[in-house]
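Input record (Table S2, row 298):
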Amino acid sequence: MLRVLRDGHRGSDVQRWQEYLISEDLLAKAADGVFDEATDRATRAFQVQEKLVVDGRVGEKTLGRARERGMRLLRRVRDDELTQAMIEESKKILRAHHQDPFGTEVPFSLAGADYVARIERHYHPPGGARRPWGEHPGVSLFVFLKPAQAEPVADEDAEGEPLATPPAEPGLFRLSERSRERLRGVHPDLVRVVTRAISMSDVDFVVLEGLRTLERQKQLLKQGATRTLNSRHLSGHAVDIAPFIDETISWHWPHYHPLATTIKRAAQLEAVPVIWGGDWSSFPDGPHWELPRDKYPA
Ligand SMILES: [Zn+2]
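Output record (zinc ion complex):
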């Protein structure tokens, strides 16, 4: 799953994006892998130029457009993907190019896949297991990706020696205090799903409502906001969840589908059956999630 890049992110995927912005003359700084204010501004400039939604986030749409315009999507080859042939090829390239400037790229193909070998500055701490010690030119291998395969790259190099593995990135978002409060009285299985979902989500979201009083339900019925007095909210078997985008709650339907995918995946991982109101054919309800009545009678 593609990480949606935005302000505050770090990593080689950010660096790739910055390199692209630089090549488009939108960013005037080094590609340092830190998604900072300048990168945010350049991203927005790109989105304005391409008539995309201007949110400073680099997701499928923004990246897809960049790709159409010639951006290459590369990811570092993982150690467990290295074959002897790839290692031999890397050594050959390093012998031929070790005096070239860092950043020199040498494309090659092997067994039907396209790779790029990049000469990079490698550093192995003196006394450590990895040789040679100190700073030296090394080869890092990248493979071209189809968009569906895109994923954050791991920092490993091509010599079959993994660098210290960066810690798994914690979830980007956590439930706000208000969201947690609104989960009070909600069935613990549903709470588990919501909690799991936020830890996996690359979109922030808020809990709008959980447990509902009968008075409020009557009020909503009067307002036409609901069609029933028999809501699953009354028994704590439902929650309403909305994506939180650009500092505000989104009612924009396209924002609900990716969120729904994440919540369904979280429910699967928690082995809790859930029903999404967005799947209802009559009166679809994008924010609404409930536990099925047959498994969870009120
Ligand atoms: Zn609801």
